[in-house]
Amino acid sequence: MLQSLQACRAVAAILVVLLHTSNGIYALPKYFSSKPFGDFFDFGTAGVDFFFVLSGFIMMHIHADDIGNPRAFGPYLWKRFTRIYPPYWAVLVAVIPVFFVAPHFGFGFEREPDVIIRAILLFPHPEWHMVLGVAWTLVFEVFFYLLFGLLILNRRLGTLVLVVWTVGVLAHAQFATHPWIFVFSHQFIRFLAGVGVAMFLRRWQLPYPRIVALVGATLFLTTGMFDAYARPIPLSAQIAGYTLGSALTLAGLVQAERLGLIRPPQLLVYLGNASYAIYLVHFLALSLLAKIAKAAYFDRYVPAPILFFMLAAGAVGIGCLFHHAIENRLHQWTKQYFRTKERPRPIDVAPVRAERKAA
Questions:
Q1: Which one in 155, 214, 224, 293 has a CA-CA gap of 20 to 30 Å to 287?
Q2: Is residue 238 part of a domain?
């Protein structure tokens, strides 16, 4: 996979970690009741926007040649399933018992059978009740994967469904009830933008890619600063700024890498490889580390900005450990299982016969 993609995934994950360190942990009265950097990291929500754009790009970039090939549908679903579900279930298995043993850690709905079943399947809940809070984004990922799979199963049917769905997504403000508010959510605009970037780069060369990436990053960050310090900004402005900024940044970096103009830092590439694991466990890790820091009175003798980054770095580190100890092993196991279940494909001898006749 392109290293620039992995670097972008790392940036997206780090943005979310910083957001949750600031608003989800440090600002809470039970921990430190402050925000060392004020509202600066509030725009970390845009990390999800970036993730979704990347997901749309990756699907089209990797599977464009599978479109209209029904034989590729099964392997496609299996690959998507094994990437998302096994690591997620590993975390879920560890988390669910906690809400029964210590109910005060949750909101109460985590013990409801309907919520648990939907959480296991990553099926949308009308009230967006999630056992693992960060898993709400995975619900959108899975739905998009299924829709994209229709293109692989049948090009015409998939194209028709996606065109109609895209129109619905662009008219998302017209839907206010479940499940349509989910099916046509504005969140899917980011996926579509990523697909558009991949389609563009398959057909055309992007001129001045580094400048395009810089313009995209500037737009992304400018939107973030307005989002953090000039609230409220219209949803349409958030969508346009974050989505277009992400798309331009991604397009510029990918084209620049293909031309040999950039080489992403290996640390970001590594963190990109571990980004899913980091995303899954970072909030749980932050909660654990904050409890330890509070019990040890770290906030009394460690400056708040330093403790802030200690917590964030610790959460990223635990995510990397999960990536190596759990995610990679689960991926290798499912990959090996799939190989053993694959049947050998018959060899197509038609080209050989044609060559012999020609000779």
A1: 224
A2: yes
